[in-house]
Amino acid sequence: MKKIVSGVAALLMLSSVGFASPLNDFSQGKVAVDVSVRPSSDFKASDDDTTRDAKSYMEYGLTFGLGNNLAFQYKGANPQTKDYSYGNDKLKTQEFNVLYKTSDNFTIFTGINQAKHELNDTGYGDTKSNWQIGVTGQTSLGENLTGYATIAAGQDTSTWKIGLGYALSKNLDLDVFYGENKYDKVKYPWGDTVDCTVKGMGYGLTYKF
After folding, report:
1. pLDDT tops 90 at residue 117
2. pTM of the complete model
3. What is the residue range of 139's domain?
């Protein structure tokens, strides 16, 4: 999979410009609202090393242009497994990032990636917070069609995502993607830690104004 991500990144470096999504205009006052659904995902927790089917869940985000090629971004999601013999696993995840557009093709970012874990509705454990750094590359693949890839990593977290955005109108994009999120050493409510991985397909809409 690392070879695939590297190949996509190389393609982005060589391709032309003209974007549908994600937000590429960081002028002050520009805003993008993202709402996505992951209807079918895999959820793996290290306590029993078993990959389970995840319930359909929402992902959401806001990006605010600050001017001078800077933007602030918030992301959130609440993935959980389908019920099994011991109940289910749940995560509450959030990201708070500062973005800087280095060129029309690339944006670098850094910020805080947070995760809380819950098992069997016993209540959330402590919040696990990690600094992360990452990069998003994007390129035009045709009229109204954009390809993009995001890679990010921190001490106990990593993310990658590959997707396609299609401009339905000037301000509205359709997004289809596949990605993986890893959150290591997240505490159970009783103090033990667990490594969690969530991956799968998703689709959604981005409204820009």
Report:
1. no
2. 0.84
3. 2-208
Residue 177 near residue 201 (C-beta atoms within 8 A): yes
CA distance 77 to 55: 12
Between CA 186 and CA 195, with CA 191 as vertex, the angle to 5 degrees is 25
Q: Report whether pLDDT(187) > 70.
A: yes
Stretch (H or E) spanning 2? helix 2-14
**Structural domain tally of the chain?**
1
What 3-state class would DSSP assign to 180? Answer: strand
Here the tokens at position 147 are: 């390809």
**Bond prior to 22 in cis (omega within 30° of 0):** yes
Residue 31 confidence class, pLDDT cut points 50, 70, 90: very high
Instruction: State CA 68 to chain mean position distance.
Output: 24
Those residues whose C-beta lies under 8 Å from the C-beta of residue 89, and which sit 6 or more positions away, are 43, 45, 52, 80, 81, 117, 118, 119, 196
Q: What is the CATH number of the domain that holds 202?
A: 2.40.160.20
CB 38 within 8 A of CB 55: no
